[in-house]
Design brief:
Layout lengths: L12 H13 L8 E5 L3 E2 L6 H8 L5 E7 L16 E2 L3 E5 H4 L2 H8 L7 H17 L5 E5 L9 H4 L1 H6 L5 E2 L7 H6 L4 H10 L4 H11 L2 H8 L2 E4 L14 E7 L5 H8 L7 E6 L5 H9 L7 E5 L6 H9 L1 H5 L5 E6 L8 H16 L2 H13 L3 E5 L18 H11 L18 E3 L5 H4 L18 H6 L2 H7 L3 E7 H19 L6 H10 L8 H11 L1 H29 L10
Parallel strand pairs: 3-6, 8-15, 9-10, 9-12, 10-11, 13-15
Antiparallel strand pairs: 1-5, 2-7, 3-4, 3-5, 12-14, 13-14
Helix pairs in contact: 10-21, 24-25
Length: 576
Amino acid sequence: MSDEILVRENVGFDIWAHKAALDHVGAGISEFDEVLLTNDTWFGPVRPYGPVFERMGERAVHFWGMTDHAREVPNPFTGKGVLPYHLQSFWIAVRREMFLSEEWASYWRDLPPMKEYFDAVLTHEIRFTEHFTSRGYTVDAVYPSDAYPTDHPALFNPDLLIDDGCPLVKRRPFFHYPPFLDRHAVIGRRILASIAGYGYPTRLILADLARNVPPRTANADAGMLEVLPDRDVSYDADRPFRILVVAHIEQLDGLDELVARLGALPAGYDVVVTIAEGAWRAAVTDAFHRTARHGSFDLRVVPRNVGADMSAFFVACADVVRSDDHDLIVRVHTRTPAKRSANVVRYFRRYEWDNLFASEGYVRNLLALFQREEGLGIVFPPPIHIGYSTVGNTWGPYRWPAYEMTERLGIRVPFDGPSPLAPLGGMFFARPEALRPFTEVEWAYEDYETSKRRKEPTRKVQERLFAYAAGERGLHTRTVLTREHAALSHLSLEYKLDQLASTTPGYPVEQIQFLRSLGHVNGHGPVTYLRMYLRRNHFKTLHFFYPVWRAARWSAGALLGLVRAARPGAGRRSGS
């Protein structure tokens, strides 16, 4: 694949890497007819390279690119001036007359340092094309932006580029800020389907995203939520999994329902049960033996209940969780949330168990996800939000302890912002490999005790890191819902978003940026203090300020609309 590999310090982004490679080749560059400058910001080849090189070989130009970006006023990176027309730097091919010229040599010799991403964009990507065309060199793009409905088709129209024969797909539609992509209706799930339709192994894309993109971002951009039907439509019974159920019985309430729910699994699964109280042994054994669907049965009494279901999993069951004797591990428990109302507790249990064990057909469709995707590491319901204030701050006090734990476990997957993608109910289906960053560590019950130094429970920190552990092994995460819970969740979120968005004009991405500019990030800043004040002085204060707030909001929205309408290039999409 490669004649030489140059190892260098990772400074100056891909541009200084190109400079180092050109310096390394030196005068030997004269042996070639064309030099291709590219980087690792794309996937491919989705379509063949041959037709592209044949087409461009017939064009008498000095340099060419795969895609370009239209001229834009004002420059979206600086807010003023002009963003000139330019080839996108992820793929630029240069021919002999240009790369043997003094202009070429001086360009790379005088290249400024690039410490920040925007330095690379402003001092090279948007400058390169104009620099050489102003000196008489001619340029062309294989897939010019003026042939597509936006000025940045590599980001906004990758499916159209693929259908037109483009061999490359940019990574950005799968890791860019989800509210921005939402603003422009960029649907990553459809892009992945298009890529798969041309035979490209999308497992490579998902493995890359799992390692390098925050899990919640990747799942949102790639559309990784599955709404599964109750009737089996995809399971291949000729390719069964060896399934191990690890169940922690923390309270006998719910035991019978849990055992009944497990009956939705294909017959023959093995069971390891941990209990916190030895006196429960007979009741638990009897409950499990009333069903004949499972295979082996192993009951273990946890010597110390510190860490609850998590220490039972990683300490009491360490031997079976580490083993390769099973293809999938199903983790369940009877724990219910503390300090919650009866209704919330009831909904929590229903939400967790319905979305993992709704019916035999539903479970088979869930297992079929693992059959279909070798790189799928873990499946669980999306973090619950009905009855909870988890949206917007699920990390809470656990973020810094989570950083410390990932250092210990060797997990380098980037963290999500306000909330991780996590099985907050503590129940999931997973491949043993997805748990390896955890199971390669020797955990002890003492690790789950709190102290002055370790104030946050280890159990809650671990619970937030399962998707990150899977990602470190290149295994991606999917979330699943029944049709009923998908409807309930969507309607609840839609209404809550409508109420929140009504306080600020613009699209959600603009509303988020506005609120963050006020300092309201993870519960801190001026907005928080204003909210606290309103709570304490609610009725009188609200009656006085509400009409004023409404009038001011309407005026600001109207003024913003006028400014946008009058701005040159209004309605154009930006981003290089």
